[in-house]
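Continuing from the previous page...

OK, I double-checked the sequence for DUF475 domain-containing protein against my notes and this is the correct one:
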Amino acid sequence: MLLKTFGWSFAVTALGLVAAVFYGGWEALGIVAILCVLEISLSFDNAVVNAGILKKMSAFWQKIFLTIGVLIAVFGMRLVFPVVIVAISAKIGPIDAVDLALNDKDQYQQLVTDAHPSIAAFGGMFLLMIFLDFIFEDRDIQWLRWIERPLSKLGKVDMLSVCIALIVLLITSFTFATHAHQHGGAHVDKAQTVLISGIAGLITYMVVGGLSGYFEDKLEEEEEREHEEEEEAARTGKQRPAVVLAGQAAFFMFLYLEVLDASFSFDGVIGAFAITNDIVLMALGLGVGAMYVRSLTVYLVRQGTLDDYVYLEHGAHYAIGALAVILMVTIQYQINEVITGLVGVVLIAWSFWSSVRRNRALAAAEGKAQGSDEKTEVSSGV
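Thanks. Re-ran it with the corrected sequence; updated C-alpha cells here:
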C-alpha cells in the first residue's frame, strides 16, 4: 500500500537527485534535498485539506489529481509561475524572462522579490477565506470548543467571512502605504497593487469555491433522487445526466484543488530564494516535494485517516489561517520560512494528539459500557 501510493514520489526523487548531480554536482544535490524538505514542511497542511476534498471524488479523478494535477503543480507553479511573474512585473516577453532566469539569476531573484506583495496578497486572501468559512461553520465535532462554539454562532451572519477578509485586506494595504510614505513614498503605489491582488484572490475563491460547492450540492441531490427513483430512472434512461453532472462536480472540485495548491505554493516558491536563485534547482527541489504532498494526500484518503483522527482537518485549517496571516505580514516584514513551516507542523501535530486522546477516551467509555452490560446479563441469569 505504501509503495503503491508513494512509488511515483520515490521514482521522481531518484530522478531529481540524479539530475541535480549532473546539473551542478553534489552541492546542487544538497540544495535540491533541502528544498524538498522545505516544500513538504510548508505544505503538509495542504495535504490534509486536500484529502478532505479528494475523498469526495472518484478513483478516476484521484488519478487525474496525481497525474495532470502533478504536472500543473510541478511545472506550472514551481517552474512556469515564477517566470510569468517576472515577465509581467518586468514587462518583458516570456522568452526574455526565461533567458533572465538562466543567465542573470540575481536580477531574476530581485524581480520575483519585487512581485512578492501582490503574490502574498492574492494567496493570503484565498487562504484566509478558506479558514474563515471553516471556522464559522457549525460542526458536530469541534476541536477547540471555546473558540469554535461562539464563532459558529457568529457564522450565521451572512457574508461575515467576506467582510472580515476585506477588513484585513484594507488594514494590510493601508499599513503598507503608511509605512512606505514614512520612508519616502517610493512604494506607495504598491499599496494599490496589494489591494487589487487581494480582491482578485477573494474573487477567485468565491468563483471557484462557489462553483465547486454548487455542483457538489447538485450531485448530492441527483444521487438522492436516483436512489429514490432507481427503477424508473433505469427504464427512462435518466441516468446519463447524472454522469455529466458528476463530471462537472468533479472538474470544479479538481479546479478548486489546483487553485488551493497554487496558493499554498506561493510561500514555498518565495522561500526557496533564501536557499538558491537557480530556477532549475528550485524546480527540481520544489517539484519533488510537491510529489510527496500529492502522494500523502492520496494516502490519507485511502487509509481513512481523517475519519479516524477527526481533529486533523481542524488543525490543518488553523494552519491555513496562520499561513494566511503570515503571507499578509510578509508583504511588509520578512519572516523566516522555518517559522512558517513549524507553525503548521505544530498545529497539525497538536490536532493529531487530540484525536488520539479522543479515540482512547471513546474506547475506554465503550469498554466500561460493555462491562456494565455483561454484569447486568450475569445478574439477570442468576
